[in-house]
Amino acid sequence: MRWLPAALGLFAGLALADPAPTAVPNTLQFISEHPVEGMPRGNLSGLAQCGDELWAVSDRDDDRIYRMLADESPGSVWQATPEAFVVSGAPDSGLSWGMRTRVLASGLVRGGALDFEGISCDKAGNRYVVSEAYAGVLLVPVTGDPAWLPLPQSLLRQARASGLLMSFNALYEGLTIDPDGKTLWLAAERQRRGLLRVRNENGTWKCDGNCVLLSEGGVAMPPPELGSERALPIDFSDLALYKGKLFTLERLAHQICRRDAGTGAQEQCWSFAAGALAPERRYDLPYGVAEALIVDDKGAWIGLDNGERARADGDARPFVLRFAAPVGGWLGGK
């Protein structure tokens, strides 16, 4: 039981909640939808705005990211153009031998051994891609070879001491980085879901005290349009940073929530269920498929990882949905 005092110490100042807060979100106005072509294996799992360019990742592709030729005209088709690279090995993030063995087996069966689940970029244009399978972050620079960030070994220990990253295929599901490339936030997906933060000090990534900002468990009912008969685990499926605030994409609840970037505390939520779950856009699934988020002045881009399933109108391509910013902007209603 020598681990107990240390584990308890990690919870000091940590926001814990179980079950999840019952916020009543406002509704975001749906603007347009855009099917994506050029991602042969689909599974759009992350989006990022890098200057004037949009980038995407698929959790079935280990050797490329995609530049999106995006047209905001309603109904326009987006073209994904791959940028290929070579990844050297897998990161040593501290995962157990058993977990790594399951990752290898899963990758052989479904493809996408690294399971890229999110992408972000700094103001220099460097891309950062999170691997859920190995709980690591790959730096894809503007020039040069990709490299795994040397994240601190204490990151995984602290996460697990707070109940995060305990289940296979429920590790990091999203990330975002500040423009200077000095502070990185990671989203733990579910059972429990959480927010983590590391900082780069003189080339060394550190926890700066407690890496875990938020850890919370619980279940909730999906929106009634999905017809689910049971509550499911609450989740995070991506992160975005906008004007110093952290925004979480909450797939089950079909909402975007603004949070304090320093504590992870929830401030305001907005629902996108009405637009995403219009009859023709529904998938025959009891949960959501929203996995990619960009927040900007005009609104939000939400990418759907449909797992190659066709939606109600028969279209099996990945889609990106556009929603207008709330009245008063994302930072209103403080």
From TrEMBL:
Disulfide bond among keywords: no
Query: What Pfam families does this protein's entry cite?
Result: Phytase-like
Question: Domain named Phytase-like: which ranges?
Answer: 42-192
Supply the alphabetized keyword list: Signal
Question: Coiled-coil ranges per the record?
Answer: none
InterPro entries membership: Phytase-like_dom
Identify the stretch annotated as signal peptide in this record.
1-17
Q: Which SUPFAM superfamilies match?
A: NHL repeat (SSF101898)
Full protein name: Esterase-like activity of phytase family protein
The species this protein was found in: Pseudomonas triclosanedens
